[in-house]
Amino acid sequence: MQSDRKYLMEHAEESLRLDMKTDNAVTGEQARWAGLAPGMSVIDIGCGPGKTTAMFGELVQPGGRAVGVDFSEERIAYAQEHYGSDTVSFERCDLYQPLNYLGQFDFAWCRFFLEYHLSNCFQLVQNMSEAVKPGGILCLVDLDYNCLSHFGHSPRMERAVAATIRSLEVNDDFDPYVGRKLYSFLYDLGYEEIDVQVGAHHQIFGELKQVDEFNWTKKVEVAAKRSGYGFDEYAGGYEEFLEEFRSFFANPRRFTYTPIISCRGRKPQAS
Prior knowledge:
- The protein is of the alpha/beta class.
- It has a single domain, classed as Vaccinia Virus protein VP39 (Rossmann fold, 3-Layer(aba) Sandwich), CATH 3.40.50.
- Helix content is 39%, strand content 23%.
- It has helices at 14-21, 24-34, 51-59, 73-83, 121-130, 155-172, 182-188, 210-226, 237-250; strands at 41-45, 65-70, 88-92, 105-111, 132-143, 150-151, 192-204, 255-266.
- Strands 1, 2, 3, 4, 5, 6, 7 and 8 form an eight-stranded mixed β-sheet that branches.
- It is globular.
- The mean pLDDT is 94.
- One of its GO terms (molecular function) is polyprenyldihydroxybenzoate methyltransferase activity.
- Keywords: Methyltransferase, Transferase.
C-alpha cells in the first residue's frame, strides 16, 4: 500500500525545480567520496525527478545498475520519461515499508529526503538499511539549520522566517536540523567505517542566479504559504512578506548559506 502522506513542496513545477537545482558535479563528487564505484548496484532513495539516479547509472559503468525509488507518482513518471535507460530504472515505492523486496544493493543513497520526515526519520533509515547488502554502503546527505541562515533582511523578516520554520516543524513534519542527526542514525544501526563531511550547500551572494531565484521563490511561495503561520507583523499578511522576501533576495548585498552534512557507513557483514 502506498503511503498517503502529503509532500510539503508539492506543486505543479516541483519536478522541474528539483531537476534544475540538482548539480551533478556536486552529487557525483559526494557519491565518489562515499564509495560509489564502477560495477556497483545502487539505489537512489527519494530519487525525485531522477537526474541523480541517471548520473549514478553512468558512474557505475561498466557492469553496474541504478534504481531510483520515490513516493511520488508524478516524480517517477518524470524520471522514467527523462532519464530511464537500459541501466537506470525507477519504481514508485512506499518508503515507510522495508525496501528489501527490491533486492539488496552495494550502495544506497538518500539526499534531501529525510528533512521532510521529522517524526519518522530513523524508521525510514532502518527501511533503507534493509536494501543494503552486508558489507555495502549507505550514504545519507541532508541540510542543517535549513532555510534559517540569511543576512541583510529586516528584523521582522528574520522573525517571520524563524516562526515559519517552527510552524512547518509542527504542522508539516519538517526537520530543519536533520543533518546533525545522520551520524547517530548510522551509529545506532551498527554501521562501520562511518565518515562525515560538513560543507556549504547554498552559498548565495552577489548577483542572483536564475536557478537560485526560482528555487527559493518556490520555497517561499509553496512552503511558507502552507506553513500555517499568520505573518502578523505584516499588514498585508503573507503577500506582503513574499514581496519583502523577493526584494531582499534580489539584492546583491544579501548573503544566504545552508550547511550540508554527508554521512556514509558500511553495513556489517552477516555473522
